[in-house]
Specification:
globular, alpha+beta, Deoxyribonuclease I, Chain A, five-stranded mixed sheet, 27% helix, 371 residues
Length: 371
């Protein structure tokens, strides 16, 4: 039995036009150009702008999902179950070949209330074939993952491990079982160059906690069971620099999931294909701009699934990324003149926005063995 499984950080699929007084990135630029003498006037304009921008963006998000044609989706940065259902009904289902249902979302721990959602092809599964477990309440102490590095950051043993959640979805289909552990690990961004290093202990604890959950769930048979860890793990050992040269970024935090545990099928792809996110930023420490293609999103396979799928078909849908992103890291010419005329994106994708997301959806075709 074959299934196509996908993960996609859809970037702030919201029912709100702002997170807080500071607004949202999408609306902040335009709002900064105008003076509003009254707060209610500003709020009304910002709300209208957010709705207009969201419609453009979600058409492209839906195009990426429709093109990927996954049977099962784990989606990150979703505001609510209502927004997830409305998005599929009013955007995805207008253009996709599949109809999706079995929608699941549990409010997690993120302070912005961006959560992990699940969707599956409606005709694939029936009642009682999907079981859902949230692990948002799991603490560092319960998982046995608290350490000195976390304590040094002021994080106590009884705090919650997951920055968002680990959403466990168990599927029964044609006498076979598949368990998905959907994650969105701690972001690397703390506003400084050392964000990656400073947040690494949290991601490492999250990775260790996911491993603990799987070992607890399946006991000594975890190697023979069909499970997948997938999502925006915000961790990678190698990125791609200019001309797609590999850059060793040091420890990522997700090593506990890889060292003698799960298999990363992305390593079977050509090196220049191993990325789902692009970042161009100014490094204060190096006093220069840095371009980096990086694999933030992952689909990690259990030993049983890896053995049954030695070279699985994987795809990243990149036509929804903005034109500022070089889609081929090997291309030496990254000038605006070349990138803006590539004609390799969806209609109406902009230089920086609108776009489908700042991530590429990642899918994998899996043969699900008995077990």
């Amino acid at each position: 039995m074959k299934l196509r499984v996908g993960t996609f950080n859809v970037e702030n699929l919201l029912t709100r036009h702002r997170f807080e007084a500071g607004g949202r990135t999408e609306t902040a630029a335009a709002m900064s150009l105008f003076h509003f003498p009254r707060a209610d006037e500003r709020d009304a304009v910002e709300r209208s702008l957010a709705v207009a921008l969201e419609d453009d963006k979600r058409q492209m998000t839906a195009l990426a999902i429709a093109e990927a044609q996954a049977d099962l989706w784990m989606l990150q940065e979703v505001d609510s179950l209502a927004s997830l259902q409305a998005f599929f009904a009013n955007y995805v289902h207008r253009i996709a070949d599949h109809r999706y249902g079995h929608f699941t979302l549990v409010d997690g721990n993120d302070r912005r209330n961006i959560d992990i959602g699940f969707a599956a092809r409606r005709d694939l599964l029936g009642q009682g074939q999907v079981k859902v477990r949230s692990h948002k309440e799991l603490t560092f102490a319960e998982a046995g993952v608290h350490d000195r590095d976390l304590a040094a950051l002021g994080i106590g043993a009884h705090g919650k491990v997951f920055a968002r959640d680990c959403l466990e979805i168990e599927i029964s289909l044609n006498g076979r079982r598949l368990s998905l552990f959907g994650c969105h690990f701690k972001s690397m961004n703390n506003g400084r160059d050392d964000g990656r290093a400073m947040t690494l202990p949290v991601r490492r604890a999250e990775a260790r906690a996911v491993r603990w959950l799987i070992e607890q769930r399946f006991g000594g048979g975890w190697r023979e069971t069909n499970w997948v860890v997938l999502g925006d793990l915000n961790g990678y050992r190698y990125s791609l620099g200019p001309h797609a040269a590999p850059v060793d970024e040091g420890l990522s935090g997700i090593e506990p999931l890889l060292d003698g545990f799960a298999t990363d099928p992305m390593t079977t792809l050509p090196p220049h294909e191993r990325w789902t996110h692009f970042r161009r930023y100014w490094s204060e420490s190096q006093d220069r701009l840095i371009d980096s293609h990086m694999p933030l999103d992952h689909i990690l396979l259990s030993p049983a699934l890896a053995a049954a799928n030695p070279r699985p078909a994987m795809q990243m849908i990149r036509r929804g990324l903005p034109y500022r992103v070089p889609l081929d890291p090997r291309q030496p010419d990254r000038s605006m003149a070349r990138l803006a005329t590539c004609a390799d994106r969806y209609p109406r994708v902009g230089w920086d926005r609108p776009k489908a997301s700042d991530h590429s959806p990642l899918t994998i075709d899996l043969e699900i063995p008995a077990g």
